[in-house]
Amino acid sequence: MITDQDMSAVFHALAHESRRQMLDILRDQPGCPVGELARHFDVSRIAVMNHLTVLEQAGLVTSEKQGRSRHLYLNAVPLQMIQDRWLGGYTSQFASRVTQLKYAAEAAARKEENKDD
User: Fold this and answer.
1) Which of 12, 33, 55, 113 could link 61 by a cystine bridge, Cβ 3.0 to 4.6 Å?
2) CATH code at position 23
3) Residue 67 within a domain
């Protein structure tokens, strides 16, 4: 179960555009070396490392040392846990309303068909 503190760390990590871009890159290029990731940004390597630290502390990025390089991977589990805990209640209400709307539209269409007969 994800705690409020864990969720805050994830939301904090997602609040910065560069960190969101990093996650997109890691989603598309699993195992991307740090140096390769840094080339996507017009900031110092230290700035990239600082962003990666925030992402790792939030549990959104994991790394694996391979020789002299460090390879990065997206960990989407914290995002899924937030969706399950925080958004799940909202989506079930929305889905219920959409289903009700579907039934109402179908009933109106049947009524219109019977009117034409």
Assistant:
1) 55
2) 1.10.10.10
3) yes
Distance in angstroms (rounded) separating the CA atoms of residues 105 and 108:
5
Please give the full DSSP string across 26-69, using - where no structure is assigned: HHHSTTEEHHHHHTTSSS-HHHHHHHHHHHHHTTSEEEEEETTE
Rounded CA-CA distance 30/25 in Å is 8
**Contact, 46 vs 87, CB < 8 A?**
no
Q: Could you say which DSSP state residue 70 is in?
A: E
Biggest CA–CA distance in the chain, Å, is 78
At 15 the three-state DSSP class reads: coil
